[in-house]
Amino acid sequence: MNWGGDWMDHSVEHAPRELLGSGQVGYVFDLLKANVVRSRRTMAFVLIGFEGEFEAGETEDQICARLVKSVRMTDAVFSAALPGECGLLMPQSGKEEAAAFLRRFSKELRSAGTTEIRAAVLEVQHPGLSFEQSLDLARGGLVEAAASGETVAFVDAGLGRRTETVKVSVLDPDPLFREALSMSIGSLRVPSVELDVRTFGDGLDLLESGWTASWHPHLVILNDVLPKQNGLDVLHALRQMPNEQKFTVLMMTRRNSEEDMIYAYESGTDEYLVKPFNLRLFEAQVKRLLARLWS
Fold it and tell me: Which secondary structure element, helix H or strand E, spans residue 280, and what is its range?
């Protein structure tokens, strides 16, 4: 995620923004968490603790206000209720990205001669993690950061992503080949993912089956040449569906010219695999595509 070159330039105009109070932040946390679950992304929960005296005349509230000006417009800064604390919710951000921002913010404060900070960061991924639990865990992380002398401490909430079903469709006219691919996919073990695999001998069979109608993430592995409705036609049909973003498409082909590849990518395929291919390479690509669903 990119803040842009002037992310720390306080001369940049911002829409009026305020520090979230303790009565607001729980509601905002739940809204952002719901989007985390729906979009299969992470949210970084950050708790910042101030140390020492405020040497440049800034108060604790003013430093929190400085933080508000420094974060992205999509982030939310909140009052953590206890003196010497300030919190930050960073949707669509992981712990490493949050830590990088915190180190830059800490450097800015040191340059201004203001104060030192410690911070605890945890990733919110599971719908069962509440704001109160996150705050308690982060306060424990602040203690660890102070004890270790580190600017940032990472906290494990003990709740990973919830297990989610991912549909997989294999389309190929050769029954033995598609069965081999189905067995290969069924043997894969991907954290927090349960695979539901079906095979089809033709694109029309898939489109008329009703198998594409649910909200589940859907990996479609299709040959470009099929008897009734070929792979590119299926690809176009999937990309024209209202919820087309749920589909991840891996196209298999014997054509390896640059023109064919460019056309396939421009038509909406996510990956392109030239036959014949090594089965281990195929499995590696499928695992990569599945991992990409959770960014």
Answer: helix 279-292
Mention every residue, 6+ apart, whose C-beta is less than 8 A from residue 106.
116, 117, 119, 151
CA distance 3 to 100: 12
Q: What is the number of alpha carbons within 13 Å of residue 186 lying toward its C-beta? A: 11
So what's the pLDDT on residue 164?
80
Q: What is the pLDDT of residues 22-41, one digit of tens each?
A: 788 989 999 998 887 777 77
Residue 162 sits at the vertex; the CA angle it makes with 157 and 164, to the nearest 5 degrees, is 160
Q: For the chain, give every domain's residue range.
A: 22-154, 164-292
Looking at residue 152, its amino acid is V
3-class SS of residue 271: strand
Distance CA(222)–CA(172), nearest Å, equals: 6
What CATH number belongs to 22-154? 3.30.70.270
207 φψ region: left (φ > 0), alpha (ψ -120 to 50), beta (else): alpha
pLDDT for residue 236: 93
Burial of 72 (0-12, 13-18, 19+ CB in 10 A): middle
Its CATH architecture, for the domain 164-292, is: 3-Layer(aba) Sandwich (3.40)
Coil, strand or helix: which one is 123? strand
Q: What is the mean pLDDT of the chain?
A: 83
Q: Which own/partner pairs from 63-67 qualify as long-range (CB within 8 Å, at least 24 positions apart)?
A: 63/109, 63/114, 63/115, 64/19, 65/19, 66/10, 66/109, 67/105
pTM, entire model: 0.60
Judged against a pLDDT cut of 90, whether residue 168 lies above it is answered with yes
